[in-house]
Amino acid sequence: MVTLADFGPEVRAEVKQVREVVSALHQQLIKWNLVVWTAGNVSQRLRTADLMVIKPSGVRYENLTPNSMVVCDLEGNVVDGAEAPSSDTASHAYIYRNMPGVYGVVHTHSTYATAWAATGQNIPCGLTMMGDEFGGPVPVGPFRLIGSEAIGKGVVETLKKYPKSPAVLMQNHGPFTVGRDAEAAVKAAAMTEEVAHTMWAARQLGDIIEIDQADIDKLNDRYQNVYGQH
To answer: What are the Class II aldolase/adducin N-terminal domain coordinates in residue numbering (predicted)?
Structure first.
């Protein structure tokens, strides 16, 4: 069995740093009302080794610390940690193995995004901010049972069809988001809930006016390559 002691000081130093980051980001899920009780999880992949850091299963958010974060390899095997890892670990690992540019994964059960997932509907792209962040609608993925890498496979299959989107709504389950690191994936989770809520409200008022794909592409290019500090 491989343990953290089998890795060099560079890897162990990154594990320490990533544990701190992942622990702190779980509090952002609470701040933005994306989770309740023990639901949801954040993980981040290391850059110095094929390892990831993820939330322990069933532990309340107020009890999470950097030391309680679990280190796993990219097959989902525990490398370091006193607690059992999240029940979504195998799916996070599958995403990392099959999406090489992804270094952060987040899963929530946020209310409005999960409502769209329960109805099996994409969130239509009726806002410029959706063009910016998602490059189109937020897609719905297939129904998959929890506890294996099946959900991860569904996430990867769906995002291959929507390569600009950092989010997928797994049918009857909830949103998964990805990013260049865990913070980017948490941001995508917060944005997913924001647009899910706004598009739900828009539906109550009337038909959503969807934005043409040519304009979405221009919005997305500007946001990804011009907006902000570079």
So the answer is: 20-200
- Helices (DSSP H) in 105-162: which residue ranges? 111-118, 128-134, 150-161
Q: What are phi and psi of 44, to 5 degrees?
A: -140, 135
> Which of the residues in the chain have pLDDT under 70?
230
User: Structural domain of residue 12, as residue ranges?
Assistant: 4-226
Q: What is the CATH number of the domain that holds 183?
A: 3.40.225.10
What does each C-alpha distance from 220 to 52, 67, 114, 131 come to in angstroms? 29, 38, 24, 5
Residues 107-116 pLDDT 10s? 999 999 999 9
Asked whether 112 and 200 are in contact (CB, 8 A), the reply is yes
* Secondary structure element (H or E) that encloses residue 176, with its range: strand 174-179
Task: Give the tokens for residue 199.
Answer: 């598009």
Please choose, from the candidates 74, 193, 17, 67, the residue with its C-alpha nearest in 3D space to the C-alpha of residue 55: 67
The C-alpha angle with vertex 164 and arms to 162 and 165, in degrees rounded to 5, equals 70
- Provide the pLDDT for residue 229: 77
Running DSSP on this structure, what letter comes out for residue 122?
A: -
Query: What is the per-residue DSSP string for 55-114?
Result: PBTT--GGG--GGGSEEEETTS-EEE-SSPBPTTHHHHHHHHHH-TT--EEEE---HHHH
**Count of domains observed in the chain:** 1
Residue matched to tokens 């329960």? 118
Q: What are phi and psi of 206, to 5 degrees?
A: 160, -165
Q: Which residues contact 162 (CB under 8 A, 6 or more apart)?
A: 134, 135, 136, 137, 139, 168
